[in-house]
Amino acid sequence: MIEYLLFATFIGLLFHGIHRKVIARVQGRPGPPIWQEILHTLKFSFKETWIPKTASQTLFVGIVFVAIAIWSGALFILLSGGSILLLFAVYLLHKIVEHGMGLSTGSPYTKFGAIRSVISAASELPLLVTVVAIYFFTRSLSIADIAAYQEVHGPLLILAFPAAVAMYLVILSKMHYGPFSIIEAKEIVSGNMTEHFGVWRAALEVAYALKTYVLLYAFVLIFIGSLPLALTLLVMLLVLVSLSFVCAVTPMLSPYDTVTIQTLVTGALVIYILILGVVMG
Amino acid sequence: MKKQTSLVIGLAAGGIAVAAGLLAALGHLPVWAAELVAVVMFPAFVIFIALWWNAKPGEEDIPFIGY
User: Fold this and answer.
1) SS3 of residue A50 by DSSP
2) Which residues of A touch B57 (CB under 8 A)?
3) Which A-chain residues 76-135 have CB contacts (< 8 A) with chain B?
4) CA distance A215 to A126
5) Which one, out of A136, A189, A199, B51, has a CA that is 20 to 30 A from the CA of A66?
6) How many CA atoms within 13 Å lie on the side-chain side of A263?
7) What DSSP string describes A164-175?
8) Beta-carbon contacts below 8 Å between A and B
9) The pTM is what?
10) What are the residue ranges spanned by the domains of chain A?
11) How far apart are CA A120 and CA A256, in angstroms?
């Protein structure tokens, strides 16, 4: 079991490196090597590690354990073909992790990050609507059933394209350096992660690598179907590169614009679902 | 916490996760139970091993609480 987690962590960190590389090349810079994020994580693990005096020690440390645990759990939900609602629950728990991480330190910068994570809760709305849209087609929320449905009827990427766009937006909202990355914006240093340094940051990089792997894998499973591992990784990479391109050419939005766009997308999806409801009964 | 304590906890967490995986592969443990063990043990494995190699060789506690 632990080998799946180590593999997903390695690929996730590699994807983060590729993400940075693509952004740099689109912006006309050479960029770091693609294994930079792996080195970055190792580097953090050797840096001095402390717990700030102003922090809630239990929350400060515990939140890092929880961050890794929830995305480890999410990976096993995907591998076992579990319910998409459980994946949705993990996504909501991640929001609590972001918020708790910011509030645990006592630093004003991390608190700003925590508050922004609450503001950006609008990013969950497209995911919820995606779940409903998928149910209209497959009549099941089990990932195994969704994959089986696609083997017969073709990929949901084509059948339910607006839902795929919404899920894509959800993944985009969780990417580093993206238009919706307001919780880690440079004007608030590193946002909610500012005080988590050294080993804590290295562990968070592991959690975020798992998160990236899980979200991309979920997109492939839910909208394209069950593929051989090599092909799955290739499609995940293609989705990642497209996300990196969007991140490279889009400036970071203000918190209010972030909420507005995500709410507008949700509104459009609700109209789509109403139409689906009328057409498909 | 002492450097040696970190190593012991990290290795124990990793060992338990590997053992649960092996037991599940041999059919002595349900797969979901092995997955649950991995979910709980993997964070401990990552963090305590990192704390161990981060710690200096002296007798001081890690992580430093201050600043």
Assistant:
1) strand
2) none
3) 76, 80
4) 14
5) A189
6) 10
7) HHHHHHHHHHTS
8) 86
9) 0.91
10) 2-280
11) 9
